[in-house]
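PROTEIN DESIGN WORKSHEET
SECTION A - STRUCTURE
LENGTH: 441
C-ALPHA CELLS:
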C-alpha cells in the first residue's frame, strides 16, 4: 500500500536519537506522541510522576544545600562556646543529613526511570510510514518476476525430502521441533552460500570480515537492545547468551570506545549461527526452515557518522539486494511502518523473497538504522573536530539469512521431476548445475 508519512514541526536532532533521561525530561510530550505511533503500551503517567518526583527532590536538595552554605558562613562569625554556635552546628548536621537523604531518594527514582527507559523503543524516523502492523508497510520496489510453473510447485520441505537431503523428522527426534538436518549437497549448498556472500561483501562491497564469538555476556545483549525486553526469546547458558544474531557481538566489538571520525564508516561482515527461542511465534511457520531455533546468517554491520547514516542505510540495502539479484531470486523491498518496526530501529527496510508454494513474499533480510540508540546503550562514540566525543550511528542487516535463502532456492529452482537446478552464480562452487534425488540415506 502507499506510504502515509508523519512529521512534527521540529524533527529530532541526530544527537538525541536514543531516548535518554535528559531528552525525555525536555521533550516529554513529543516522546509520548512519537512512541504512540508504534502502538506499544508505555506507562507515561508513571514516567511523568517519576520525573516530577525527581525534579522536586533535586529542588529540595539544592534548597537544603543553599541553606547549609548560608549557615556555614554565619557560623564562622559566632563564638564557638556560645549556645547559638551549638544550635547552628546541629542545624548544619541536620541539613547535611537531609541533603544526603534527598540525594539517595533521587538516585532511587533515577534508577527506576533508567529501568523504565530500557523498555521504551527507539523513536521513529520521520520518513517511516505510519501504521499499526505489516499490512501498512510500504512497498518501495520490486525486482524480478515470479516464475510461472507448469506444475504445482512443492514447498521446500517436500523438495528437500525428495532429494533425500533434508530430514526434519530425525532432527525432531534428536533435538526437537524447529530444528533440521541438512545432508550431502544441501549441507554443501549452505556452506557455499556463506562463502559466496562473504566473498561478495568483502571483495565488492568493502566490508571487513570478522568471525565473532557465538556466546556473549549480558552487557552485550543490553547494548544492542535484546535485553531486558527480549530475554524470553534468548537462549542462556550460565552467565552467557547464545547469539541471536552476529549483530550483537559485532556491534559490541567497539563498546566503550571512542573512534576516530576519519575511520567512519566502519563496515563489518560476519557469519554466525543464530539461536532464538521464537517465544512469540507459537504456531507460526512450524513446518520447514523459515523459523528455526538454530539457523545461520551472514550479517552486515556499520558504524556511521550521524550525518551520513541514512545514505549508509540505502547502500546497505543495496548490498543485501545484490545477493538476491546474483542468485536470480525475485524479491521486493518494503519500508516497515511505525507499528511493525523493531524495538531498536529508527527505520527498517525488509527484503522479501518470493516463495512459490506460499504465493507470497517472505522476509529474508531486515536492514535497519538504529541511529544513536545502540551507541548510547553500548557507549560507542567518535571524536568530532572540536575534540568532543559524540555518539555515532549503528546499522545492520542480513546479507543474507542462509536458511531462508535455501528455502527460496529450493522452491524457485525446483523442477517437475523433483530435481533442483543450481543458480548459475553457484554452479562453479557446487561443481554441478543440478541436483537429482534421491541423494541421501
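SECTION B - SEQUENCE
RESIDUE ASSIGNMENT:
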Amino acid at each position: 500500500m502507499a506510504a502515509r508519512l508523519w512529521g512534527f514541526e521540529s524533527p529530532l536532532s541526530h544527537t538525541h536519537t536514543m531516548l535518554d533521561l535528559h531528552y525525555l525530561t525536555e521533550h516529554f510530550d513529543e516522546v509520548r506522541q512519537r512512541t504512540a505511533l508504534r502502538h506499544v503500551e508505555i506507562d507515561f503517567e508513571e514516567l511523568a510522576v517519576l520525573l516530577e518526583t525527581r525534579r522536586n527532590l533535586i529542588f529540595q536538595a539544592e534548597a537544603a544545600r543553599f541553606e547549609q552554605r548560608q549557615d556555614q558562613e554565619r557560623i564562622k562569625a559566632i563564638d564557638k562556646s556560645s549556645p547559638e554556635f551549638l544550635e547552628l552546628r546541629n542545624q548544619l548536621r541536620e541539613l547535611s543529613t537531609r541533603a544526603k537523604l534527598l540525594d539517595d531518594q533521587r538516585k532511587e527514582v533515577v534508577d527506576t526511570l533508567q529501568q523504565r527507559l530500557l523498555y521504551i523503543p527507539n523513536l521513529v524516523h520521520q520518513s517511516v510510514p505510519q501504521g499499526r502492523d505489516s499490512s501498512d508497510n510500504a512497498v518501495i520496489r520490486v525486482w524480478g518476476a515470479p516464475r510461472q510453473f507448469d506444475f504445482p510447485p512443492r514447498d521446500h520441505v517436500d523438495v528437500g525430502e525428495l532429494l533425500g537431503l533434508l530430514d526434519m523428522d530425525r532432527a525432531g527426534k534428536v533435538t526437537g521441533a524447529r530444528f533440521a538436518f541438512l545432508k550431502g549437497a544441501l549441507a554443501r549448498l549452505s556452506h557455499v552460500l556463506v562463502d559466496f556472500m562473504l566473498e561478495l561483501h568483502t571483495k565488492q562491497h568493502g566490508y571487513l570480515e570478522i568471525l565473532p564469538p557465538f556466546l556473549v555476556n549480558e552487557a552485550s545483549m543490553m547494548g544492542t537492545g535484546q535485553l531486558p525486553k527480549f530475554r524470553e526469546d534468548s537462549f542462556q547458558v550460565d552467565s552467557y547468551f547464545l547469539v541471536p544474531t552476529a549483530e550483537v557481538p559485532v556491534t559490541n566489538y567497539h563498546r566503550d570506545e571512542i573512534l576516530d571520525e576519519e575511520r567512519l564508516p566502519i563496515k563489518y561482515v560476519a557469519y554466525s549461527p543464530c539461536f532464538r527461542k521464537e517465544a512469540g511465534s507459537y504456531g507460526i511457520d512450524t513446518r520447514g526452515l523459515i523459523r528455526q531455533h538454530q539457523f545461520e546468517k551472514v550479517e552486515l554491520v556499520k558504524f556511521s557518522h550521524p550525518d551520513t547514516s541514512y545514505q549508509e542505510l540505502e547502500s546497505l540495502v543495496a548490498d543485501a539486494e545484490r545477493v538476491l539479484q546474483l542468485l536470480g531470486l525475485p524479491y521486493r523491498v518494503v519500508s516497515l511502518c511505525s507499528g511493525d518496526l523493531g524495538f531498536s530501529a529508527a527505520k527498517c527496510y525488509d527484503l522479501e523473497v518470493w516463495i512459490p508454494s506460499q504465493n507470497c513474499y517472505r522476509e529474508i533480510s531486515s536492514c535497519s538504522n538504529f541511529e544513536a540508540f545502540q551507541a548510547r546503550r553500548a557507549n560507542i562514540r567518535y571524536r568530532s573536530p572540536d575534540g568532543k566525543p559524540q555518539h555515532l550511528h549503528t546499522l545492520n542487516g542480513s546479507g543474507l539469512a542462509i536458511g531462508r535463502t535455501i528455502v527460496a532456492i529450493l522452491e524457485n529452482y525446483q523442477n517437475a521431476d523433483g530435481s533442483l537446478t543450481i543458480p548459475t552464480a553457484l554452479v562453479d562452487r557446487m561443481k554441478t548445475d543440478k541436483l537429482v534425488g534421491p541423494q541421501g540415506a
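SECTION C - NOTES
Residues 1-18 have pLDDT under 50 and may be disordered.
The chain has two domains: 43-117, 134-435.
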